[in-house]
Amino acid sequence: MDSTPPPSNGKAGTPFVWVPETLDLDGLIPSEGVRVAEGVLWLGHCVLVGLAHNARYRDDGRKMPLQATYLRNVIGRHHLDKVREAAERIGYVRRGPSYERGKRSQRYWLLEPHATARAVKREITHPGLLRNIRKWREARQRETWKRIRRNETPVAAEVCEHLWRHLQRLRIDDEIDFGEDSKPAHQIAVDHIRRREFRFSVDDFGRVHTNVTNLRKVLRRHLSVDGKRLSNIDTNESQPLFVGLALAKAAGGRERGKGQEGQRGRKAGGPTLMLDSVMLDKQTALDWKLERGRLPGDLRAYLALCEQRGLYLAVADRLGLTGDDGKDPRDEAKKRVFVVFFDKPWHRNRTYRVLAELFPSVIRSIGEMKGGDHRRLAHFAQRIESAFMYGQVVPRIIRERPGLFISTIHDSVLTPVVEERYVQDVMRSEFAKLGVSPQVKIERC
Q1: Is the Cβ–Cβ distance between 129 and 39 less than 8 Å?
Q2: Higher pLDDT, 147 or 309
Q3: Which residue of 170, 280, 300, 323 shows the fewest CB atoms closer than 10 Å?
Q4: In sequence order, what are the beta bridge partners of 231?
Q5: In the chain, where the domains are located
């Protein structure tokens, strides 16, 4: 990459913040001054924008973690406590008590009626805040792209550059009916695309995050590229499939771990299946193929169900989920399976027992992998997913169709409708190289 990509609209320091239309700061300015009052606006803005960018916190009603460094860099170290106190005193933003330096950021949330009110734009007038906002936004973007160019992410810089460049082509309709159940975060997410305020980052586990990845599904129908509507090419039951591939890869790690490499792993105090060489680290290719004959029988059955889009239904049948309550049995089973797979290991509930009966070695391996840190399985599966999407699927499309618009939504690809079959064929072909054949579906946005 020749240089750090500039903000696409040249407005890194846009001097406005999002504020609920129910908020009235007129009484706060005389008592606290403009610096603190507008600092309150910035604090609420950070919560709103964070929810717009993070579906996990937005849709689950969870509190938004904000790094104190970010707040101090804009609000100022000497003003931050006053801003927090003022925000809570006027019934706008509250913060949680839990905080661990270097491990857990403090969480913030908006209070009603502001949390669900329509958001409006309000200009920041204090010159110090304006200067800090511009510097902070520019510094964050510079650091993101420096990290990518130094190859400090699991995704190759060339792939990131291609995805970033094509992201600029994205457009969204001018008129959108958000519906009655819409949240202000959805309104903000759409506005960022409309104003060409694109964002791009790669996490430590290889997931690429953009304006598209957390956009509400029903809003994707309003996206277009060069006047063409888009399709999402997705893999059925992809997350349990990547978990199965992670377990298969880990099984290979155990075999290798019986030698010298495994001895080093045991001396280090970690399970051999979590060695860096098995975790893929920054490798951009999956240089192995599934050897089903060497896997436990129940893991083979598990993978076969994932390929047939049958895992959630099998669990739903065992749990007696019939859909009589109006809930989709597959969706209900999916939620419960995810708790067992990815949450803390004490969830030995009925779903856990059903999975242990169906796939005893799978559940045993999951328990080993989550030992000491329940997030390990999710991180490992995300590495596999990233190596597949950004080490195989996307690079192949770049080679074969460099001018084709693609934007990833973690394990799926967004592309114009006229190219949906091509992308579907690429994904199927790349899965076949791994020795699996899941159902790859086309969803017209």
Answers
A1: yes
A2: 309
A3: 323
A4: 415, 444
A5: 1-137, 231-445
What token pair was written down for 161? Answer: 């550059």
Q: What is the DSSP letter of 325?
A: T
In angstroms, rounded to a whole number, what is the distance separating the alpha carbons of residues 272 and 257? Answer: 6
Neighbour order of strands in the sheet with 230-235: 407-408, 413-416, 230-235, 440-444
- Is the omega angle on the peptide bond into residue 7 within 30 degrees of 0, that is, cis? no
**Structural tokens at position 21:** 């239309």
Helix (H, G, I), strand (E, B), or coil: what is residue 232? strand
Beta bridge partners of 209: 201
pLDDT in tens, 299-311: 999 999 999 999 9
Phi, psi of 23 (to 5 degrees): -85, 135
Place of tokens 């590495």: 383
Rg over alpha carbons for the chain, rounded to the nearest Å, is 24
Write out the two tokens for 92: 């706008």
Determine contact, residues 346/114, Cβ cutoff 8 Å.
Answer: no
Please report the DSSP string for 78-107 in residue order: TTHHHHHHHHHHTTSEEE-S--BTTTBPEE
Name 109's Cβ contacts closer than 8 Å, sequence gap at least 6.
47, 63, 64, 93, 94, 96, 115
What is the number of other CB atoms lying within 10 angstroms of the CB of residue 421? Answer: 12
Residue 96 zone, left/alpha/beta (φ > 0; ψ -120 to 50; rest): beta
| CA-based nearest residue to 284, from 386, 378, 377 | 386
Name the packing angle between helices 127-149 and 34-53 (round to 10°).
Answer: 30
- Closest-CA residue to 12 (of 131, 147, 126, 125): 131
Contact present, 18 and 50 (Cβ < 8 Å):
no
Q: Is the CB of residue 218 less than 8 Å from the CB of residue 434?
A: no
Prediction pTM value: 0.83
Give the model confidence (pLDDT) of 365-418 as tens digits.
998 888 878 888 888 888 889 999 999 999 999 999 999 999 999 999 999 999
